[in-house]
Design goal:
Four copies of one chain form a homotetramer. In chain A, about 35% of the residues lie in helices and about 30% in strands. Chain A is built from eight helices and 13 strands. In chain A, the strands form three sheets. A seven-stranded mixed sheet of chain A has the order 7-6-5-8-9-10-11, sandwiched between helices. Chain A has a four-stranded antiparallel sheet with strand order 2-3-1-4, with helices on one face. Chain A has a two-stranded antiparallel sheet with strand order 12-13. In chain A, helix 3 (about 115-125) packs parallel to helix 8 and helix 7 packs across helix 8 (about 260-285). Chain A starts with 17 loop residues before the first strand and ends with a strand. Mean pLDDT of chain A is about 90; it is low at about 1-10. Chains in contact: A-B, A-C, A-D, B-C, B-D, C-D. The interface of B and D includes residues 210, 211, 228, 230 and 256 of B. Chains A, B, C, D: It comes from Thermobacillus xylanilyticus. Chains A, B, C, D: Pfam families: ACT, Formyl_trans_N. Chains A, B, C, D: Belongs to the PurU family.
Chain lengths: ~300, ~300, ~300, ~300
Amino acid sequence: MQQNVYKPQHPIERSANRARMLISCPDRPGIVAAVSQFLYEHGANIVSSDQYTMNPDGGMFFIRFEFDLQDLDRELPKLQEDFVRVADRFEMKWHIFRASRKKRIAIFVSKEDHCLLELLWQWQAGDLDAEIAMVISNHPDMRQLVESFGIPYHHIPVTPETKAEAERLQLEKVHEGKVDLIVLARYMQIITPRFIEYFPNRIINIHHSFLPAFVGGKPYQQAYDRGVKIIGATAHYVTEELDGGPIIEQDVQRVSHRDDVASLKRIGRNIERTVLARAVKWHLEDRIIVFQNKTVVFN
Amino acid sequence: MQQNVYKPQHPIERSANRARMLISCPDRPGIVAAVSQFLYEHGANIVSSDQYTMNPDGGMFFIRFEFDLQDLDRELPKLQEDFVRVADRFEMKWHIFRASRKKRIAIFVSKEDHCLLELLWQWQAGDLDAEIAMVISNHPDMRQLVESFGIPYHHIPVTPETKAEAERLQLEKVHEGKVDLIVLARYMQIITPRFIEYFPNRIINIHHSFLPAFVGGKPYQQAYDRGVKIIGATAHYVTEELDGGPIIEQDVQRVSHRDDVASLKRIGRNIERTVLARAVKWHLEDRIIVFQNKTVVFN
Amino acid sequence: MQQNVYKPQHPIERSANRARMLISCPDRPGIVAAVSQFLYEHGANIVSSDQYTMNPDGGMFFIRFEFDLQDLDRELPKLQEDFVRVADRFEMKWHIFRASRKKRIAIFVSKEDHCLLELLWQWQAGDLDAEIAMVISNHPDMRQLVESFGIPYHHIPVTPETKAEAERLQLEKVHEGKVDLIVLARYMQIITPRFIEYFPNRIINIHHSFLPAFVGGKPYQQAYDRGVKIIGATAHYVTEELDGGPIIEQDVQRVSHRDDVASLKRIGRNIERTVLARAVKWHLEDRIIVFQNKTVVFN
Amino acid sequence: MQQNVYKPQHPIERSANRARMLISCPDRPGIVAAVSQFLYEHGANIVSSDQYTMNPDGGMFFIRFEFDLQDLDRELPKLQEDFVRVADRFEMKWHIFRASRKKRIAIFVSKEDHCLLELLWQWQAGDLDAEIAMVISNHPDMRQLVESFGIPYHHIPVTPETKAEAERLQLEKVHEGKVDLIVLARYMQIITPRFIEYFPNRIINIHHSFLPAFVGGKPYQQAYDRGVKIIGATAHYVTEELDGGPIIEQDVQRVSHRDDVASLKRIGRNIERTVLARAVKWHLEDRIIVFQNKTVVFN
């Protein structure tokens, strides 16, 4: 444990009895009634609900509940068991998360530190409600920084020859660390389909452009060459298609002819770190449902 | 009927069977279950729900439902009658609106036309789902413009001496016109408490500043004198306190030292018309609940 | 002249003696000194100057001056003649515009009216300092609207067979009308290279996406399919490459999973009209220099 | 020197020969000509110029030049001496800054760390071109953090009784440290007029509201109570009037009824740190002229 670890200044209030429920299913009458009746009968108090129906009459139904339940830890298994009957009736995909159970994150970085720093800072400020289980990097540069936060740092070099072996090592580390979510904080290495399979919709990447403009490499150079007046960044779940996964969040900033590529990069770094932190926060708070390569974000 | 009236280009699809329900009540377990169960039993299909609980455990509960109900016009009275039992049980304030029943608007203007024009255009484009029952002005200037849209124009001059009589006439007109909502589109006259009483939370005003900065007169001059770098506008419900009613919507725009008062006004006009139109739209779509001089906006 | 034509409410103050000067040339020492000295000696008072040097040491130099000159109309020819010597010395491309000489615009439209309406409205409010010489459309729909503003409307149908003939007619009209600037306000027809040649960097188009994302047709459908969280619009000068010309202005708006294609279009219309009006305004105020398929915008 | 100090990742390119010149004076013809001619004759190449004239004909003239001059360090004294004649002729207030001479900053903090952290990170990333000479705090909490960046930390407690003595100590430290600029990064203590006199327009404060709304204490509570839909932050130079000094920069963020005071604070922290860092950056780059309690910002 290093010296300058200090306690979060703004701890998030999380009731030990707060749970979140995400449901998606084909739309039909009675879903809200069935679920809310079920929760009521099991003693749960709904404190928040947000619903989205895609194409009423024959479309899809999505809902997010937050509820409080006395003795949640003890009662939840029973409630989940009982819920299977409701879920089966409506062909639901569903999940219940305990708000007090912090998700475990592995952050992957290369040499750019701004996205990592933002995550560490927001985490330290109590704004990201997670355990940061480890940072993995193909470079040694940020070891001291990361360890000064009391977080393990794994330096796993990647070369074309050692790529497969490096990925095997990474997987070992994240499995050992019981990692729930991988965040590519400007990691700059392609993740293989085999790796992605282990973490479907659980790898968040930050792409340094307003996708789908400027897919691929050197987006700021591309933006400069095209003379755009606004640049952006995109946080998305990683799928097999490069920069093609479900978009979680995007944001932009105004630029002008005065901004050269270096200036675009400087401005862009601020967008990247903000957008990535927001996407991670929403994932941690169980606000995202992926459907057909798009996201439903309840925020 | 004038010549250049033409049909909305983008008609809003409104099912004749779509209804919206707004509820507020003290929070306690079982509300969502009771209402959604009730709707289900009456054959209604919930297509959207959005809930907000202020201070869970002892706070207030707010919810907005949209639902479809076969033969709504015929079935609604019975459903409303039956709902009284649920409402009483939870001490609800509630209202059900038929989406197909267009609200009737009276727009009050003085000499500035930009807010009026934006409302007329959005209405004509099918973006504002309302009947514009009339325009009332203390000046004759915009008669031709308004009548060219096929809308009645009432010129009711206002002087210090005729103020009371003018207001009596205005009330007569809006009552005759079965007006649901009054929009002060830069009307620039103080509305008396007596008038407000007839339309509680049903008069929307646009104030040309980012409230509560620059309350009162000449806000752009005030903004210029203070050297602010951002100006704004605020749409709010009118209450007895000048510029003090519940805020519905605000927006802002960046300005610089180069902008003199005339330039601030020019920029400001674009903010004002956008903000006012948005607030009116949300009111028309039954998205707003007022509670303790604040708004809950489900959007 | 139609009935509902009324005078601009907010006339722009334009001194009859105000001129604007745009210069671009290879960078080297002494340019600002030479030009400002020249203007001073000719009795002109510089009221605004804005300079941009692309890559100092061996790059390009761009500057915009506004100056006041007593008896501008009488003195300008002499001043321009004299300036040739300065311009030759520095290999300048340059132009001087009289602020009081309103540019003449032809607006091309198809069936969508929102961009046209915004231009008409801003023009009427005195925010667009131009003469609107005519509106040309391949449809008859907006004749009454346009003529009600006292503006000539030319209905020139376009079919695959009559395309060449239609363009010949259009050119005839804009030449007769001494048009300086053509604005494609959602015109939806491809302009041929032959036509563009007559108006290099003097045709402004609004593309309904954040270019270079979603080039080509149905951009809102494309945006919906990709699940973006922000949509935009782009105003650019028209060149031979479809949607590839120099970008003048872009803006964006946040959207969510709740927005279907119709909703994206509705939101997009507001971005389109704002962005187009801004680009046109900057062109009218001689704020734009095109260099290597990009714009330098002094604003 | 602590362990986790690492080199800026993105060093700003600053030519040793680059200078910046700020001028304000009464407007009259010939100023640009005189200055640019002067610079040209002294061998300087203007790489950027930006002018603003407040009320042409009888108003004020402001200009910022950037220029390159061979052997700047050696030549500057002579150039400054010679410029006095030009300056006197036009009654100029003027200053020339060497871009390569980093300004020295003292950051004052209390217990909130987010503004300090942003400044440290931007400084470390090479985005803030300054020497951070010291951090002064009335609390001991951030010593380790600050010292880990290799920056001296002075803990100077402040109580009502020791206020005068504390200020004396602070002044001693900043004078010893040859400090050019003081940044109040959520310092939360009133600075006395006596202290301010030593640093006129060289103390930047961040106020956690969109001034002039919510002057004084607890602005987030005030914002919550008023039910605003947008919150903001304001960076300004400190003057004797509390929260009344010249505004440098402001920014805002959208909020909703769902945000309680804690949430407003969380969102606000992100605005505060961004706005403060921007204001400090502009000051460091000599982009700001103060005139009559307002700022002219050339950016």
